[in-house]
Design a protein that fits this description.
The protein is an all-alpha fold. The protein has eight helices and two strands, in the order ααααββαααα. Helix 3 packs across helix 4. The mean pLDDT is about 90. InterPro entries: Translin, Translin_C, Translin_fam, Translin_N, Translin_sf.
């Protein structure tokens, strides 16, 4: 009996183990960059709207680095192995999407489109049912990023009042309500997305409470 078959199998296992380790390192680097970016972007909660651009300018190097991190990861992944390892990096990509979505809102007061995600992160959002032919950001990861925006908006509504920007909560409330209505048009099949969507109503309620308190105090109409 030849043992060569087992030698060959071990070579294959060694290659897979090496790839697994490389992917882990790439994800580790991506997570580190996202943490720095998140810390910098959090400063948007402690400044008035007129100073938001300074925060956005400060985070630009991190978005450039995120693109590099994702590029490194993409080089390791072949289309046929994309979904085999996808769970390893999906949460990190969701975080990167959330950062991009919040940045677009802060700069333009609108929802980030898949084209915006491409501009910020350097990779397309897979909005079709076509087979994966290269590394992409999945539609689910994009939607997770959008859902994360609601919690940021609820914090921003409260913090805007703290820094004396009492007109901003109304702007946030209008946008959040429209975004929530848009989400309700989706027939969500993904359990994780649906569970997170169900929690949005608490963020909406928090924003509405800010509005109510301002009106009770006669600070807004």
């Amino acid at each position: 009996m030849s043992i060569q078959v087992f030698v060959d199998l071990q070579d294959t296992l060694d290659q897979e183990s090496s790839l697994f380790d490389e992917i882990k390192e790439a994800i580790k680097a991506l997570n580190k960059t996202c943490r720095v970016a998140s810390a910098k972007l959090a400063k948007a909660h402690s400044v008035s709207k007129s100073h938001t651009q300074e925060v956005l300018d400060a985070i630009k190097p991190q978005f450039a680095e995120i693109q590099q991190n994702l590029g490194t990861l993409a080089k390791l992944i072949k289309p046929v192995t994309f979904y085999r390892y996808h769970d390893m990096w999906s949460y990190a990509v969701q975080t990167a999407c959330a950062l991009a979505v919040f940045s677009v809102y802060l700069e333009h007061t609108r929802l980030a489109t898949p084209e915006d995600i491409r501009a910020y992160l350097g990779f397309d959002v897979n909005t079709t049912n076509q087979d994966i032919t290269e590394f992409v950001i999945t539609l689910e990861e994009y939607l997770h990023g959008v859902i994360s925006l609601f919690s940021e908006l609820s914090r921003l509504a409260v913090n805007a009042v703290i820094v004396g920007d009492i007109s901003r909560p109304q702007e946030i409330s209008t946008f959040a309500s429209e975004l929530y209505s848009g989400f309700q048009l989706l027939n969500l099949k993904n359990d994780a997305i649906r569970r997170r969507f169900d929690s949005i109503k608490y963020d909406i309620k928090k924003i509405e409470e800010v509005q109510y308190d301002l009106r009770v105090r006669g600070l807004t109409n």
